[in-house]
Write a structure and sequence with these properties.
Number of helices: 3
Largest sheet: none
Radius of gyration: 25 Å
Order of helices and strands: HHH
Structural class: mainly alpha
Distance between the termini: 103 Å
Strand content: under 5%
Length: 120
Amino acid sequence: MKGKILLVALMAVLMLGSCATKQSAINQLERYSYELRDNAQYYSVRDWQNAVDDFKTIRKRISKFERDYTPQEKQHIGELEGQCAKYMAQGAKQRLVNGVRNIAGELNGIIEGIRGGWPF
């Protein structure tokens, strides 16, 4: 009897540990989506390289528990991944727009410099 109780207790600990680990992977993805939401607009090229690597790492961690997730958890994971993709796209777009504005400003300066330097 004592052996059965120990076996049941050990199984319960293992099951709880597994749940905590699979949930922590979801929590990590959720925190990452917040990070992207709040800071992606300020990312440098190097930050974006790290962001992609971080996302891959989180995805690998989640995929380890793919069989264990309920349909509701899978839907939540999909929503979080969609949010991350949206924030990544918005951040990349903003970086591109800022780059174009900087180039446009420089081009305007060059044109003004040429005009001001030449008697037309």
